Amino acid sequence: MDHTAIGYKLQSEIDALVRKSKDVFSAVLGVATKNGDFYWSVAAGTAHADKGDVMKVDTPIFIASITKMYTAAATLILEERGLLTLDNPISKFLPSSLVEGLHRYKGRDYSDLLRIYHLISQTSGLPDYFLARPRGGKSMFDLIVAGSDEEWDVEAVVDMAKSRLSPKFPPEPRGQETSGKKAHYSDTNYQLLGAIIESVTEKPLHEVFDELIIEPLKLSSTYLYGHGKPEAPEEGSPANIYYKEKPLYLDKAMRSFGPDGGIVSDVEDSLRFLRNLMEGKLFEELSTLERMKNWKRLSFPLQYGLGLMRFKLPRLFSPLSPTAELIGHAGASNAFLFHSDVGQLYIGGTLNQLQNQGRPFRLMLKVVSILGGMTS
Fold first, then answer.
1. Entry pTM
2. What CA–CA distance (Å, rounded) separates 44 from 37?
3. Is CB count within 10 Å lower at the N or C end of the chain?
4. Could you give the domains of the chain?
């Protein structure tokens, strides 16, 4: 199959997904091979519900929790430069008003034991301010999908974690970093990590992203929402995110996500970032990238490292051929950015939909089946 035929096949997959799905109104997909001999991007649907404009491959998109890869990479670059270590207690960089009483579990206070490592690896046990429901109340997610455009900062996140939510388990003990034991995915960890980055550098997070990642990689379409390119529709606002059949307008929320989910990009920039990350080019030492792959159990079939997800189905799901190992990150908006070992592919894009979180993985496995034999 030649490259043009593959491109048409990818386009037909995205067209069919938008046409047949009642809740997918726009989609974009980009694929590149590691050896650089193939790149193709496709898009389908309508970018903005109020304008009816066509979704294009360069339409800005919210990459949601893929942002965590940027935050983790920035943290590890700062560690390489000697400004912090993952072993540092978070109390070294955050005010006592944030740290005191942050992690109380079964009558014991673990707050002083929290380290940067716990945040970046999702092993703190801290509750997720975004998805966790307080007793008798609604989660931040519930409020947003109901139409409320909430605004918050790290102080509000910490207050919620302390007063309305409960930790899942104690912070991972020292010496168990390579145990492979469980992680608990919590956006709270990355809100705190963003605050630490700002404290260490004495700069706002968007400037740190610009200096350490965006400018060196020449990511011309990537910025932290609210701190970069204008969001006015006539100047290229990000495509709508939907919940079921309802478009969401989330200016305040997207400004608040910041280090855990606030980046806007496009598929070409996203793939460039992933390639540079996965080939170790963002770091001074290749060992830094390898440390990111210290996997912990998350929820089947996902594992979590240092700002990276690993998706791997057991052989019983595909007894006749090995299933792809996907390493990268997904986002709640059905955003996805992963490297596949089968075919040595980089795959990125979004479906701009807050439900059916397994759908991007099914799409990526289909892409791998289309392209996987091309480079083998």
1. 0.95
2. 24
3. C
4. 3-66+219-371 (3.40.710.10), 69-206 (3.40.710.10)
